[in-house]
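WARN no homologs supplied; continuing
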Amino acid sequence: MSVNIQDRDSCVIGIDYGTLSGRALVVRIADGAELGTSVHEYARGVMDSALDRSGEPLPADWALQDPQDYLDVLRHAVPGAVADAGIDPAQVIGIGTDFTACTVLPVRADGTPLCQLPELSSRPHAYPKLWKHHAAQPQADRINALALERREPWIARYGGKISAEWQFAKALQLLDEDPDIYQRTDRWIEAADWIIWQLTGTETRNACTAGYKGIWQDGRYPSREFLAALSPGFAGFAAGKLAHPISALGGRAGSLTPQAADWTGLPAGIAVAVGNVDAHVTPPAANTIAPGQMVAIMGTSTCHVMNGKVLAQVPGMCGVVDGGIVDGSWGYEAGQSGVGDIFAWYADHAVPPGYHAEARRRGLTLHELLSAEAAAQPAGAHGLIALDWLNGNRSVLVDHHLSGAVVGLTLASRAPEIYRALFEATAFGTRVIIDAFEAAGLPVTELVVAGGLVRNKQLMQIYADVTRRPLSQVASDQAPALGSAIHAAVAAGAYPDVPAAAKAMEAPRPGQGPAVSADLTAARSAISPIRYAVAELHGELVRHELVVWTAGNISARVPGMNLMVIKPSGVSYADLTAESMVVCDLAGARVSGDLLPSSDTASHAYIYRHMPQVGGVVHTHSRYATAWAARGEPIPCVITAMADEFGGEIPVGPFAPIGGDKIGRAVVATLAGHRSPAVLLRSHGVFTVGATPQDAVKAAVMCEDAACTVHLASSRGALAPLPQDQIDALYRRYQNDYGQR
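OK structure emitted
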């Protein structure tokens, strides 16, 4: 597509506000190239024991921040990123931001934070409450109990419970514990929206935080009657302190004010995108916005987000919001409230000094040392079971008063063993979330990971093994900032929408992450007969003259193991044996076999990951069907045999280069919405799928037969496709009644 920019040097800036720092990233609009970055550490960080300004002690489970830190990111990180990129600030045409959530603060009508008023600087409730402020659990319990008692329809959109981390629980805590501050609060606003207010001079409310953290569903907040039942003084909370038009993600919130231009060194008047959340901007950064692609953003905590085409109820999810990630899809969110924080806590407070000294001696960080020693242990060798609730449980139990545990400790237990047990505990936390989605009818076809923890190879391997899924990793080390830059490009008018910008500016995923470890000895009984079957089925391709020389291939899924068996590359059909078949994981990596797998392996793997109903895939260059592909024409359904087998025409897909997974992507995209098990790839050949590899071979044979018959018939004149009602009737009869039932 053509990019609506003045020149290829135009740039946007994404700002990612994290828990301890803010990062600015300069990105070129034309291709998503990351040109420069800068990080500014918050001077006051997280206040969880005392207020920084006054020393006022804080109770347990509190976590506050100072909004001055957020403004300092604009003053330091943005100019730093521009300098690092070596660009002229005039090249920047837009800015986008993302924030941790729910991080929420009380402000005056003009946006002034109450904590910046001198008379309120020693009042804890005047400060922003960070996402991991969990002291509002009693208020969350009251909200949940009343919602269930009244059968409020919105509670199902949050898996049956809202979290203590969210806007309403924290606001109710404010009313209960400091009613004076509550009365002085004109607006109760997410930090994600407050920073946009500072950049544009205009208050906005984004669809993401409103939906996930503010209980905004179907165009409204919880009713005044519901809020009054919680507390009479809370009745006007939504109407008075929240209500504002909701802005779509990727929209333009306004223009950079002269004051904000002075802070950042950027041109006044450039586009400022609607605010967003760090986790929810990340899928566009990797262009993983298709239904079933779950993205896990792994840092101090983990947030799991995924798009879906249907509305479903997932017990314990954080929420489902229409347009919560991209317009046109239901955005689902779940999460774990402690992951990296758990590893940091253990390293800081529970690892004996000898390990610290050894790490220094070897020039490693303590985490690198513990990970290396943990990697040497076989799974389960430590005999420990850990529970990852050290910071409560976000999904699926939604209870931040829960606590963690390590069971099985003995006097022989050592630090790397406990460290590995904590790795495993967080991985099983993610597995529980995936299982909950799938049990609710939302298949997770791909797990993509982003965030700082992806650099730990041992952790990633454990996650692949526990979830039984190969991992894809976002190439960018600053995916949220890139995602914010993508939204800035849309706000600036460079692209029509977020999907278009994501496609052009995504961070590439040049390789898969770790594959699932496979115990092939234990799996031999399952894999061996599949190897024999796949080898034998290749003979059918030769017998039916669907292939020549070494072209073409067949693969079969190994049920329940995230593995497949596929033909080796460039081996003559006469030389194929069961032993020559190659076992690969569903990331396309070879797991067993002496030969290299087919050059189409990555595409077969992509099809299996995205079409869970498929058990076999066949690729041929059969003469007549490939001739139709060369012309770029679908084969029209003009004979009953086609209606029986294909349920309509045999569609033609786009040209896709050989190597990588682009052919697989084209197959999956083309077959979406089609009953046909066959697809013609333009200027290439035929791919067929089936519930079994035998079914896929049958589809390949029938595809060539249909291609030949229709070609011969068309040589005598124009053909009339069968009426759709006749096609439907024939397809139903053949699929349901034909043969020995």
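The radius of gyration is 28 Å.
OK
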